[in-house]
Write a structure and sequence with these properties.
156 residues; mainly beta; Immunoglobulin-like; six-stranded mixed β-sheet; 12 strands; 41% strand
């Protein structure tokens, strides 16, 4: 008698767990979008320890310092994905536009957040043509981007 009730209660519990709505279960974490490559400033490799950062919607989500590798100045970092279980934005969403900075200078290249990727993106900046990050042009909705192989560049 007790064995039958135990099996019935266990079956009901298992059924209820399986019938929980998908939203009640924990969402899968969003994988990061990683970037690496060389860094040139005015066509010259930068020194070791120069800060490279990644910005989405004027918020910095990743940074690292350059280091030397085979006579090149290089960087590498990952931008964490946003946690879908929170209201606050902690990282990137699929297809977010990423602006890169070499210290305080905007890089000529931009990237696109794609979850679970590791993209080579060589960064360059020139003091005569590169606006600062707070330049009004970066908020101008008429700016166009040219994208190829998941890498975008601002059209001039």
């Amino acid at each position: 008698m007790y064995k039958g009730k135990f099996v019935l209660v266990l079956a009901i519990i298992i059924t209820l767990i399986l019938l929980l709505p998908v939203s009640a279960r924990a969402a899968s974490p969003v994988l990061p979008s990683c970037f690496y490559g060389t860094v040139l400033f005015n066509e010259v490799p930068v020194l070791d320890g120069i800060l490279i950062s990644a910005w989405i919607d004027e918020v910095k989500y990743a940074e690292s310092k350059t280091f030397s590798y085979e006579s090149s100045s290089v960087y590498t970092f990952c931008i964490m994905g946003d946690d879908p279980d929170t209201e606050e934005k902690e990282g990137g969403f699929e297809a977010d536009i990423i602006l890169f900075k070499i210290e305080t200078n905007s890089a000529d290249q931009i990237g696109i957040f794609h979850t679970g990727t590791n993209v080579e993106l060589n960064l360059t900046a020139n003091t005569t043509t590169t606006p600062t990050f707070n330049d009004k042009d970066e908020k101008n909705p008429k700016i166009k981007y040219s994208c190829s192989n998941k890498i975008c560049k601002q059209k001039k």
